[in-house]
Design brief:
With about 450 residues, this protein is an alpha/beta fold. The protein is built from twelve helices and 15 strands.
Length: about 450
């Protein structure tokens, strides 16, 4: 497999009639994407519908279609994709079983404003796969699921304070978008956006992650409703909990009467069928999910202990017009059935491990300090570092400017990787795709 191809069948420029690029080192161009983004900006603010798609080097891409582990953009470039929709596409861009399930449901209706058998089946699968899930509810985005967790925890405890951790991201709403990328010397919560209400952070306490004494000390005051964390810090750095940290947090929350919440929007159904909580063997009171749960359909969930979740039927308000939408539930059932098969993750982990090891070898041979850390299915690459970080402050050595130069060079060689350092894998990233990726990494490193 070539590392990149054109998809428009052009000839006379090094491309064959079927669109394959015959010069693997030939740099790709993205002029048509750049033109279309500028044109769309007349109607879409910034030309995009999410700030996480702004400012991409050399330009945000306009995508024509997906195909397995690849995307074909407006310039006809065929790109190996490690964005994977920012994480959801764990079965690749065109999984036949998920597409077939959706097609079977479409003639039966899209949105009922009522329940369906598919919703009940999807809920059963979640509860069977996730350790904490005695009950669950569906939502439409991870940000919404976190809001439900906040409300449940405060109702259950009668308390107001929420503890979160520097560098952890739990959605874009005013009451939780605090200290996601704070300066090292920050004192108190740091707002994540202009226009954010300053007093929305009045009940938020931000602690350094992986510091169990600091968490125990804060919980001892007896006023914390909820502690929310990524069980592995995957939005920034793919940082693992230190040995005993999650267990200590679990024990401290139980002792203090505080609700422990794992944000598994990224790790849920991606690092294994039971998420990070199953991987690390620590069960939270509540957990939030999205992304990989439905392979690209807008589905999220909150799950947890029955006595907490049942509050949603006892006066704690949770709603959403599109929650449990039938077409999305068909996709959820099909996705979860595949992800509960042990063979699915065996293949993912083997190829992800080979990719991580190959990248480490390339960085070492190029003499470029870099840490490749995380799970085989979601890992992080940090240039300029020689030791894995243990918290947000530990990422201070991440040379982000040089990393963007690296991802820009990779894109020119047919590999699309997130500029924040995260790499997502799908079942469609086979051995040939891994080989092509590593070849592109070698070329990109020579350029930078």
């Amino acid at each position: 497999m070539p590392t990149h191809t054109a998809d428009d069948g052009r000839t006379g420029d090094g491309r064959t009639g079927d669109g394959r690029n015959t010069h693997p080192a030939e740099a790709l161009h993205f002029d048509e994407s750049r033109r279309r983004i500028a044109e769309a900006a007349a109607y879409l603010a910034g030309g995009v519908s999410s700030n996480f798609r702004l400012g991409i080097s050399p330009t945000p891409l306009v995508i024509e279609r997906g195909d397995g582990a690849h995307l074909i953009d407006a310039d006809g470039n065929r790109l190996i994709d490690y964005y994977l929709g920012m994480g959801p596409m764990i079965l690749g861009h065109t999984p036949a079983d998920v597409i077939a399930a959706v097609q079977r449901q479409l003639p039966n209706g899209i949105l009922y404003g009522g329940q369906s058998a598919l919703e009940a089946e999807a809920a059963r699968l979640v509860c069977e796969m996730v350790p904490c899930a005695e009950r669950m509810r569906f939502a439409s985005s991870g940000s919404e699921a976190v809001q439900a967790a906040l409300r449940i925890a405060r109702a259950a405890t009668g308390r107001r304070v929420v503890v979160k951790f520097a560098g952890h991201y739990h959605g874009w709403f005013d009451n939780i978008l605090w200290s996601t990328t704070p300066p090292p010397d920050a004192a108190g919560p740091v707002a994540g956006s202009r226009g954010q209400l300053p007093d929305a952070g009045a009940e938020i306490d931000v602690l350094p992650w992986n510091d169990l004494p600091a968490l125990r000390e804060r919980l001892a005051r007896g006023d914390v409703a909820m502690v929310i964390m990524e069980a592995a810090m995957c939005n920034q750095g793919s940082i693992f909990p230190l040995p005993g940290y999650l267990e200590g947090a679990r024990e401290a929350c139980t002792k203090a009467g505080s609700v422990l919440v794992f944000d598994e929007v990224i790790t849920g159904f991606r690092v294994g069928p039971g998420g990070a909580q199953a991987h690390f063997g620590v069960t939270p009171d509540l957990a939030t999910f999205a992304k990989a749960i439905a392979n690209g359909f807008p589905v999220a969930a909150i799950a947890g202990r029955a006595e907490l979740m049942d509050q949603l039927a006892q006066g704690v308000m949770h709603g959403g017009t599109y929650n449990g939408q039938a077409v999305s539930m068909a996709a959820t059932v099909a996705t979860l059935r595949r992800l509960r098969d042990p063979a699915t993750f065996a293949g993912l982990e083997a190829r992800g491990t080979r990719l991580m090891e190959g990248m480490r070898r390339h960085f070492a041979e190029a003499g470029i300090p870099a840490v490749v850390a995380g799970f085989p299915t979601i890992f992080h690459v940090a240039l300029g570092m020689d030791q894995p970080a243990r918290d947000w402050a530990g990422l201070a050595g991440f040379d982000r400017r040089r990393y963007v130069a690296f991802t820009t060079a990779l894109l020119r060689h047919g590999v699309r990787a997130l500029e924040r350092g995260a790499w997502f894998l799908s079942t469609e990233h086979d051995e040939e795709v891994v080989d092509a990726t590593l070849a592109a990494v070698g070329r990109a490193l020579r350029e930078i």
